[in-house]
Amino acid sequence: MQKRIVKQMILKQRMTLSNLVSQYDGAGVLGAGRLARAVKIVQKMFQSNEWLVILSMAGPMIAGGLRTIITDLIRRKQVHIIITNGANVVHDLVEAIGGHHIRGTMDADDSELAESQIGRAGDIFIETQSFEKLEDFMTEFLGNIPEARRVSGLSPSELISELGKQLEDTQSFVRQAHLHNVPVFCPGILDSMLGLHLALFRQLQKMQLDGLKDMKILHDNLFEAKQVGALILGGGLPKHFTLGANILRGGLNSAVQITTARDEDGSLSGAKLQEGISWGKVSPTASFETIIGDATILFPLVIGATLG
Predict the structure, then answer these.
(1) Is this model's pTM higher than 0.85 or not?
(2) Quick check: is 7 catalytic?
(3) pLDDT tens track for 52-80
(4) Those residues with Cβ within 8 angstroms of residue 206's Cβ, 6 or more apart along the chain or in another chain
(5) DSSP secondary-structure letter at 62?
(6) CA 236 – CA 85 distance, rounded (Å)
């Protein structure tokens, strides 16, 4: 075995993120080493037109402050497909129509918050009135879709693209995805406020949602690509949908995941990417790395160092 010495990190004033990650790479072990290897993988994906890059998002990534970073990646044409939970679409819409996410505390009294009509995700607070505005927006939006189109069965990605078409907020990732022809797949759309609004609307007017149509749209994109890479933030349904969609093409060619979940209980969220090789979800020749930690801390570091 070749001896590779762990180099001690040296910090300097005003050093760039790229310089910092270079120090991580010199050390090469533990979380620092994993992050440095992740940056190299992302750089490879971003530097060649051969790569189709999927961004998979679970958890409150938009509410947690990553919205503009994701929007900029879409604008730079470095993300070509987004697979997300319904919550991130909802939180993007909340911001786009004038709502806000508020900095709170983890030890807040939840009974008091409920009385004040405030919900929380960790230390992110959201006023109920923001969701009331969203309900009004969605009712008007759905009503403006021609009935023939509603009845024929929009796929979730088509519905989200229609939303992006109607939004004016240039920082909205849903808006930018529409403008740059980046499909946003939301396999769990019913498990969100969007699902509730769709269900309520359907009680009054005709509405069909065709999830199977999205499977064809997604697979068509994947089969046309020479190389497919994935940036996976969190786990859950978006991660599984991302991995599973690549089975028929021999698995992902490259992937980086950032997760706080553990793998001892066999959960998909905590599973290391190499586990996907056994299912055909990740190619045996793929380059991949798992970073354990909070994506709102680590994803900006990875992207900042990659672009820097």
Answers:
(1) yes
(2) no
(3) 999 999 999 999 999 999 999 999 999 99
(4) 147, 150, 151
(5) I
(6) 9
